[in-house]
Structures are given as C-alpha cells and as structure tokens.
Write a structure and sequence with these properties.
The protein has 129 residues and is an alpha+beta fold. The protein is 36% helix and 18% strand. The chain contains four helices and five strands; from the N terminus they run H-E-H-H-E-E-E-H-E. Strand 2 (78-81) and strand 3 (84-87) form a beta hairpin.
Length: 129
C-alpha cells in the first residue's frame, strides 16, 4: 500500500512540475502575448501598436530593470518587426495595427538568447500579416 501511495505522490509531483514549466517559461504565456484575436477585439480606429500595448499590456512599456550604482538610466525594451530590429519603444508609435498579427514581449534573457545581443530591457516582437 505504501508503494502505491508513494508512486501516486511521485506521479502527481512530476505532473505538477511539468505543467508549471510549460506555462511559465520562454515568455510565450498569455501575459506576454497579444494575439490577433485580442488585437481585433480591442483596437480602435487610428490606433498604433503603442496605443494597443498601453491599453492591454502596459507592463511591456515600463522599465524592465532596476537602476544600479553604475547605471542610472532606466532600461526599456527594444522593438523587432518580423525578427528585424525596428528601434526603441517610440518606434511603436509608427506601426499601424492594420498590419500587425501579434505582439510578444521577451525577457532580457530570452531576447539575448534569440538575437545574440545584450538587451537588458528585453524585446517586443511584432509579427505582421
């Protein structure tokens, strides 16, 4: 009986750990992604990517790291459109929503892994139609 209970506990623990890993890693969860359906549901005429992000995921636009003794300036994400560098956050004010399919925020670690450069503020990925 103890072996059965121990086995059941191990299975439960393994299942819990694997589902937590699948939903929390890589920046692909719902908190870090704005889908095409969500864009269609909330957009307003004349909106740009900045307007949408400010309305539904304002944390994308905030400083992503604390200031240090050597670096006093806040650090913000950079913008990539279809995996090509587009610019700083202000460049989101030039991207019309009509051509955007999805928007995703990548942490500094994920951005560095994907693009190979130091991005302490992370990156905002825009996918176009």
């Amino acid at each position: 009986m103890r072996k059965i209970l121990f086995s059941a506990a191990l299975v439960t623990l393994a299942t819990a750990c694997s589902s937590a890993t699948a939903t929390s890693g890589g920046g692909s969860n719902a908190r870090n992604t704005i889908t095409a359906a969500e864009i269609q549901a909330v957009r307003a005429p004349g909106w740009f990517a900045w307007d949408l992000i400010a309305a539904v995921r304002p944390h994308f636009l905030r400083s992503q790291s604390a200031q240090t003794l050597t670096e006093r300036e806040p650090v913000f994400a950079v913008v990539y459109v279809d995996d090509i560098y587009h610019g700083e956050l202000d460049s989101l004010k030039t991207l019309r929503l009509e051509k955007i399919h999805s928007i995703q925020f990548l942490s500094a670690f994920d951005a560095r892994t994907r693009f190979g450069t130091d991005m302490p503020g992370g990156a905002i990925l825009i996918r176009t139609l």
